[in-house]
Amino acid sequence: MCGIDCTNRKITNTRRKTLVQGLQKLGFSRDSMKLATRHKNVESLDSYELLREQEQIGMINNLVNILKENKRNLMLIHLILITIIR
User: Quick one: 20 exposed, middle or buried, by C-beta within 10 A (0-12, 13-18, 19+)?
Assistant: First the structure.
């Protein structure tokens, strides 16, 4: 096309991640992503891929539960301190 040979150029990790996530959003298979990024196996794409929706929901739920528990603990500590001070 433009006369620039890009076949042997190294793709940086940031660009690989962007490429993998873009291809993932477009619905490309992991094999296609492997070929595009020059990975030797599809498992090596794991660190570049977006989290699946269920994984994201699970992580958010865990975070919410931790925050709720911390709030309860802080309220309990507050009540204990008020009792001690009086």
Answer: buried
Query: Tens-digit pLDDT profile for the chain (86 aa)?
Result: 456 555 666 778 888 889 998 998 899 999 999 999 888 998 988 888 877 777 888 888 888 888 888 888 888 888 888 887 77
**What is the full DSSP assignment across 51-83?**
PPHHHHHHHHHHHHHHHHHHHHHHHHHHHHHHH
13/19 Cα distance (integer angstroms): 10
Burial class (CB in 10 A: 0-12, 13-18, 19+), 16: buried
Burial 30-68 (b: 16+ CB within 10 A, else e): beebbeebebeeeeebeebeeeeeeeeeeeeeeeeeeee
